[in-house]
Amino acid sequence: MARPWRVAIVGGGITGLAAAVRLRDRAPAGTEITVYEQSDRLGGKLRTGELAGGPVEFGAESFLMRDPAGGESAAVTLARRLGLAGAIVHPTVGQAALVVDGGLRPVPGGTLVGVPGDLDRVAAVAQPAAAADRDGGAPLLPPDADVSVGALVRDRLGDEVVDRLVDPMLGGVYAGRADDLSLVTTMPALARAARVEHTLVGAVRAAQAAAPRAPGAPVFGTLAGGLSTLVEAAARESGATIRRDAAVRELHRTPTGWRLTVGPTRDPEFVEADAVLLAVPARPAARLLAGPAPEVATIVGGLDYASVALVTLALPEPELPELSGFLVPATEGLLIKASTFFTTKWGHLRRPDGLALVRASVGRYGDATSLQLTDDDLVATVHRELSKVLGAPLPTPVARHVQRWGGALPQYTPGHLGRVAAARAALRAAHPTLALAGAGYDGVGIPVCVRSGETAAEEIITALGGSAA
User: Fold this and answer.
1) What's the pTM?
2) C-alpha angle 181/185/189, rounded to 5°?
């Protein structure tokens, strides 16, 4: 009788846990799945905490409900698989604002991550250089080419559209700058349309038409019990052995599979596995790949990350606008780059005592100075800037929390997807039972991470001789 497969998953974030669930569902019965997490908690950037007696997210707060093709997103499918579909809730206030010239203006509709499909609708926020978006008789983007989002939009619609619309929207997601971020990676639908359309406005409209959304259908969702419930359910349903405080320090090929070195150097543990799935950020992955696949390690190790801090304040009965929050262009000169009014945006979090939870995000790629402030200084600055934007002093917080995420958000420069494809192709050729998954390679957001982990799990099943169907 054949020995059961042994699969090691390095990384206990949602990517690794989604991979573990997929392995449990589709690998042969008896497959031994072990998740190694170097910290003392699972979930990665999914972390539900408590502030002033109420739940609040200290990391990611929501997930997209639909995938790019218009179907159910991988996060929703996973929640359904885990028995959590009934816990999905949606924002009760969806309108957000932009800070422009020190005041709040509604985010205009009809844009694709800030890139307008109707120039008239964005005029209150930014004046497009409409004359530049002429039909030059050829598609905007050649086949297989990639450019930064900022380069394309500046060329076609001018600086104001980038600085006041696109940059803050991308910054809210990636903590990066439009002039640095890959169009193909961060806005794939627009990139596809740009290979056909001759104007940027036309490309936006084509991309929107390719993935229509039913009127009134919710865009985002979260779980009533907090996103940590997704983490806990995935860990439980996977049936995997969970190893917390278990740092994998080395990875070596053996004649029959892999050997992992786990734990401190003074007392290492050596573990044998038939396959390994690396669901950790790029730099830790590169360190593990340095021995078995040095050329892949070089590619993967070149990916950079931005660090952010999330400052959450519990405010007694503040006067807040009926908004989900606001985004801040870098040109406004504020430390805050985005803010969410949690207890306004999410109806299930509203409190009868009038206490409001407001979260601000601090930190942009390339600007480490702001994150060197102490927690007290961060809280004071955020409170002061929120008061300034809202036009009135906010009450003194009764509780506060500062969550620092070092190296949290990957920065996808042009050509990113090609580099990742080359790295994975090299692994498949030389080491088919070693797979990469996670935000560092496939994009940010819970659905993308879930799908990345599931795809890597299926590749491992196939490599070990099974069927992933």
Assistant:
1) 0.95
2) 115
> Mean of the per-residue pLDDT values for the chain?
95
Taking the C-alpha atoms of residue 155 and residue 253, their distance in angstroms, rounded to an integer, is 49
Residue 340 near residue 325 (C-beta atoms within 8 A): yes
Residue 229 has phi, psi (to 5 degrees) of: -65, -30
* Measured CA angle at 439 (ends 311, 7), to 5 deg: 120
- The CA R_g of the chain, rounded to the nearest whole Å, is 23
What pLDDT, in 10s, does the model give residues 118-159?
A: 999 999 999 999 888 999 999 999 999 999 999 999 999 999
Residue 309 to residues 12, 14, 184, 409, 442: CA-CA distances in angstroms?
A: 21, 20, 27, 11, 23
From CA 460, how far away is CA 467, in angstroms rounded? Answer: 10
C-alpha to C-alpha distances, 343 to 103, 223, 323, 354, 450, nearest whole angstrom: 22, 14, 10, 9, 27
Q: How many CA atoms lie within 13 A of 219 on its CB side?
A: 7
Instruction: Compute the distance between CA of residue 69 and CA of residue 454 in angstroms, rounded to an integer.
Output: 18
Q: Residue 469: pLDDT above 60?
A: no
pLDDT tens readout for residues 7-28: 999 999 999 999 999 999 999 9
> Residue 386 corresponds to which tokens in the numbers above?
């929120």
* Distance (Å) of CA 147 to CA 46, 139, 190: 31, 14, 12
- Is the pLDDT at 380 greater than 90? The verdict is yes
| Residues 6 or more apart whose Cβ sits within 8 Å of residue 236 | none
3 burial level (CB within 10 Å; 0-12, 13-18, 19+): exposed
- Distance between first and last Cα of the chain: 23
